[in-house]
Amino acid sequence: MKNANKRWVATLVAISLSYAGALQSAQAALVATEQVAAEQGVVSIDAQAMQQRAHVLSYLDRPDVIAGLQERGVEAEQARERVAALTDAEVAQVAHTLDTAPAGAGPSILGTIVFIFVVLLVTDILGLTKIFPFTRSVR
Q: Which terminus of the chain has fewer Cβ atoms in its 10 Å neighbourhood, N or C?
């Protein structure tokens, strides 16, 4: 029984050593932080702020935005100067708003009136107010 175990261990060691010769060695070298960040797609805060500032400034080049600014008495160059004076956090907030705001969204008088009407109608039906004569209270 002893010989069988020795033979089994010797075979296992021989196979392990034969595979160890086939493995390639690894070499380590110094890698710059910028190189690792670039490979992983990480952008520095300064570069990100510059991209966001350029994104906001690109909106100021659009003809419809220029026309809207001129309607409100603001020249496009003044708007560019104000964007240049913003902090990085403010530029990030403006860029986020530009990216997430729905097109054409704005305060709508008609929407506000309909909302108030529905709220008053529901309060009349629940018996909390008595504004409209055509409603009957649940109570």
A: N
Could you tell me the CA-to-CA distances from 67 to 59, 63, 78, 79, 109 in Å, in that order? 12, 6, 14, 12, 23
**pTM for this structure?**
0.46
Nearest to 61 by CA among 77, 72, 48, 47: 77
In order, the DSSP letters of 19-62 are: HHHHSPPP------HHHHHHHHT---HHHHHHHHHHHHHHHTTS
**C-beta separation of 61 from 77 below 8 A:** no
Q: pLDDT by residue (tens digit) across 90-113?
A: 888 888 888 887 766 566 677 778
Cα distance from N-terminal residue to C-terminal residue, the chain: 96
